[in-house]
Amino acid sequence: MISALMPNYNRADLAFERGEGAWLFTADGRRYLDFGAGIATSSLGHGHPGLTRAIAEQAARVMHVSNLYRVPQAEALAARLVANSFGDSVFFCNSGAEANEGMVKMIRKTMAENGHPERWRIICFDGAFHGRTLAMISATGNPNYIKGFGPAVDGFDHVPFNNLNALRDAIGPETAGIIAEPIQGEGGIRSAAPDFLPGLRAACDEFGILLGLDEVQTGMGRTGKLFAHQWTSITPDVMSLAKGLGGGFPVGAIVATEAVARNMRPGTHGTTFGGNPLACAAGNAVLDVVLAPGFLDSIVERAAVLRHDLEALAAEFPSIVEEIRGQGLLLGLKLAVPNTAMQGACLAEGLLTVAAGDNVLRLAPPLIVTPEDCSAAVAMIRRAVTALAEPKVAAQ
């Protein structure tokens, strides 16, 4: 008999009752160090007093009114995102997939409003992940996500990631823009090469098309900057956010320049839940922490130590760990053993991780993770690697 919950997830047989910081606890008292953070979403960890207080207080006042009325919490959150980004205006939604859908619409609409309705195609990259709606699985381009759901939605062209020559060759008279992740998360923690984002910006400027960045996973401090593209000198025309923006409460956003946002007049796009008082109270509480003086610098410092220790472990066990990838607190272990086996071995040690493409094990702890938490995680990974290496030793 089918379960009441649809069987479209391979869920671990774990249920958590409560959390504190980077730790989660089951009802029977077992504790787990959370280096998955709800897939890079619980940015302030679990039970953060500022976030939980903001949500509780707002819930007691008013949770939802719809966008038929002003939402002061959304106005405040938008103003803060604008003040700390390239953008001039923000649209709020509920998820990363919605943010990416809206970003595509904004790119196409801008082209149409500027006299180029024939420009509607979007260039995406192999290994990308942009969400699970029908259009976004087509933008993602992974055949496993598309199979069984009918023909792919037209309008998305794919080229190899980090290949600027292929990118420029793919630009045609129907191209409206480019969408890219600064670090491909689901695709295997594959970072953009140093010249890649600047190369995308240059190509967009040359051909008169728009650059959209998917910062759903890399944004909100995950790499040690508020947005990952801020490690470069370039800015996009439009950017999608979600995941860590609400610290675990569902909220997404599209940040755009005035040249893009002014085309979204009343009736062009909308949402019932997006940007409601409760979601934006959560987003403002997250920004209170992430924008506090020194917080982003502390992420860089902790991440540098964590990466150093992981690289030392990889050097010690090259038959298990081939490479350490990523930036900040979005790191990946490229493995020589199945990443599911490594994930299971880590779970047995009390460490929660997330599998990613290209046989990578993803580490995305809460941004408030402590040095002691990081040391504990490395020790757990070491024991997991040792357990996986022992059969090989015995076989020799």
What does this structure look like?
The chain is of the alpha/beta class and 396 residues long. It is 39% helix and 18% strand. A 7-stranded mixed beta sheet has the order 4-12-11-10-7-5-6, with helices on both faces. Strands 1-2-3-15 form a 4-stranded mixed beta sheet. The model has no long low-confidence stretch (mean pLDDT 96).
Write the layout of secondary structure elements.
Elements: E1 16-20, E2 23-26, E3 31-34, H1 37-40, H2 49-61, H3 72-83, E4 89-93, H4 96-113, E5 121-125, H5 134-140, H6 143-146, E6 156-159, H7 164-170, E7 175-180, E8 183-184, E9 190-191, H8 196-207, E10 210-214, E11 238-241, E12 252-256, H9 258-261, H10 277-290, H11 295-316, E13 321-327, E14 330-335, H12 339-349, E15 351-352, E16 354-356, E17 360-363, H13 371-395
Parallel strand pairs: 3-15, 5-6, 5-7, 7-10, 10-11
Antiparallel strand pairs: 1-2, 2-3, 4-12, 8-9, 11-12, 13-14, 14-17, 16-17
Helix pairs in contact: 2-10, 3-10, 11-13, 12-13
